[in-house]
């Protein structure tokens, strides 16, 4: 631990989850990415296995409560509030309950790493301390970006390599391209399915015994000839 404190004095600025994560790493893990031999790659696999187990036990990203089960939804959300989330994906992301419910849906599809990465990037952009920025960048890279990361997100090779090159001296915008790609993936792929999921329909009281239909102007998701998700006004 003393070695880690010497290399990363920004432990004083970390969340408990991030500090526990960095305690699992050795000094060689804190260096910039480089070519590794077979022995190093084997150690990487063992480290990532331990990290994956740690993340599973500790729950999802700290911005999404790990105490709520995937098949439950907050009981204090009104149908009218939930209906607002169908206006657009951006509208859903403005509401903490919307993010939490959408996260629960993604867990049922085993793709919760997308919203967790997006939330981590949003938090990352608010960091003022350069030391904390470095530790947070390393955390995001190790958990979400590098090959075989425990919660690796689906981004293209060029975007991944650009992040790898900048991780030793990260800027507030170094994850921006990757975040935009993951946002687009959720918006075009996961969000339309979420609006038709049992989790969402139960909240809007449009499914189940005694369901009540609320009528309001909203936008429904449709796909154009290129298979891209778009929205158009409709009345429920």
TrEMBL record:
GO biological process, one term: otic vesicle development
Domain RGS: residue ranges: 88-204
InterPro entries: RGS (IPR016137), RGS_sf (IPR036305), RGS_subdom1/3 (IPR024066), RGS_subdomain_2 (IPR044926)
Xref: SMART domains: RGS (SM00315)
Highest taxon, organism lineage: Eukaryota
Pfam families: RGS
PANTHER family on file: REGULATOR OF G PROTEIN SIGNALING, REGULATOR OF G-PROTEIN SIGNALING 18
Protein name stated in the entry: Regulator of G protein signaling 18
Organism this protein belongs to: Acanthochromis polyacanthus (spiny chromis)
């Amino acid at each position: 631990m003393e070695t880690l404190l010497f290399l990363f004095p920004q432990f004083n600025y970390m969340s408990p989850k991030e500090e526990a994560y960095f305690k699992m790493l050795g000094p060689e893990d804190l260096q910039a990415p480089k070519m590794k031999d077979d022995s190093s790659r084997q150690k990487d696999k063992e480290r990532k296995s331990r990290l994956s187990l740690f993340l599973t036990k500790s729950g999802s990203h700290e911005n999404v409560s790990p105490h709520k089960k995937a098949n439950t939804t907050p009981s204090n959300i009104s149908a009218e509030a939930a209906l607002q989330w169908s206006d657009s994906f951006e509208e859903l992301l403005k509401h903490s309950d919307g993010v939490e419910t959408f996260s629960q849906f993604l867990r049922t599809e085993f793709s919760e790493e997308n919203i967790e990465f997006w939330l981590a990037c949003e938090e990352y952009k608010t960091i003022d301390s350069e030391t904390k920025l470095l530790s947070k960048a390393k955390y995001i890279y190790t958990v979400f970006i590098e090959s075989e990361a425990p919660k690796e997100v689906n981004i293209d090779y060029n975007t991944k390599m650009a992040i790898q090159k900048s991780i030793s001296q990260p800027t507030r915008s170094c994850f921006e391209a990757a975040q935009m790609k993951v946002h687009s993936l959720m918006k075009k792929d996961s969000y339309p399915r979420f609006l038709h999921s049992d989790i969402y329909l139960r909240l809007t009281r449009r499914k189940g015994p005694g369901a009540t239909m609320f009528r309001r102007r909203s936008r429904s998701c449709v796909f154009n000839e290129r298979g891209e998700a778009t929205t158009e006004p409709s009345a429920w």
